[in-house]
Amino acid sequence: MESHSAPICRGPLPWNWLLLAVSLLNFWSLPTTAQLAIVSTDAEEGQDVILRIRNMPPNVTGFMWYRGEGAKFKDNIAGFRMSTGHRAGPAYSGREQINFDGSLLIKKVTLKDTGIYTVVVYLPGSIKEIGFGRLNVYEPVSVPTLQASNTTVTENKDSVVLTCYTNAVSTQWFFNGMNLRLTERMKLSSNDRTLTIDPVSREDAGNYQCEVSNPMSYAESVPVELDVKYYEKPVRVPTLLASNTTVMEHKDSVVLTCYTNAASTQWFFNGMNLRLTERMKLSWNNRTLTIDPVRREDAGNYQCEVSNPISY
After folding, report:
1. Are 77 and 91 in contact (CB under 8 A)?
2. In whole angstroms, what is the distance from residue 30 CA to residue 2 CA?
3. Is residue 125 domain-shared with residue 21, that is, in the same domain?
4. What's the domain range around 152?
5. Closest CA to 119 of 142, 107, 135
6. pLDDT tens-digit profile of 103-128?
7. Average pLDDT over residues 56-76
8. Measured in whole angstroms, how far is the alpha carbon of residue 311 from the centre of its chain?
9. Last residue of a domain, one of 200, 229, 258
10. Is residue 21 located within the same domain as residue 65?
């Protein structure tokens, strides 16, 4: 990143600078316009960063930058005066430069550079203004690792703990490619990195994934598949009832209902899979077949076959 700046000179500060550093609090001006401030900035570790000044007053004669909140001499990074040029302070690391517009360039920022910064602006007549801002430095986000305490569990008996290992600030969970909607059986840890499902249910079976991020970058984990085993009650022979078994063509309708405790229902007509026509309608659970109106080709034998998915 280019910057218009001059090299900072090391060496003892002139006495007049030392005296200024000690007596800064005695000469602040109360701003009559917008408050002087440093633009708070987010950066990724290793980047070059410029901390810019907002609401700069006119006729500036110099700048002094500090680490932390306040103008303590031991925290002074560097200063620039039109009359004397650049000077390094006790907190200068060799990576900082003050640009001619007063902004501070920090090269190859590290996590230790995170924090509050203070700038003092010098004005004619021994007047000074002070401003503050924050620099947040983040590690590059690594691809997270998602681990499950168990990937094969039994419904209503077992629990599962999914843990997302990451160096990121924020964690978000996905289920089968969609944002995970938490149920009353699900609980997230305080940092959102651990998801507990207790007990598991068959609808929890599928692919889980965590997406992690900070203000600078994001990454996704490899999906982890959860397999939920379950037992079904023995399937009872269904009962098939019709609203009427003798009907008039083009005039009457008929409703056939298959009473069952099974999960799946399939319909047959004269021993073959029933082919639905535009006059036929199944209920949402496939247990009720309505024919409206009936036609002569609908005459015959109807049957329902019920089943449960295979578990163990």
Report:
1. yes
2. 34
3. yes
4. 145-229
5. 135
6. 999 999 999 999 999 999 999 998 99
7. 95
8. 36
9. 229
10. yes
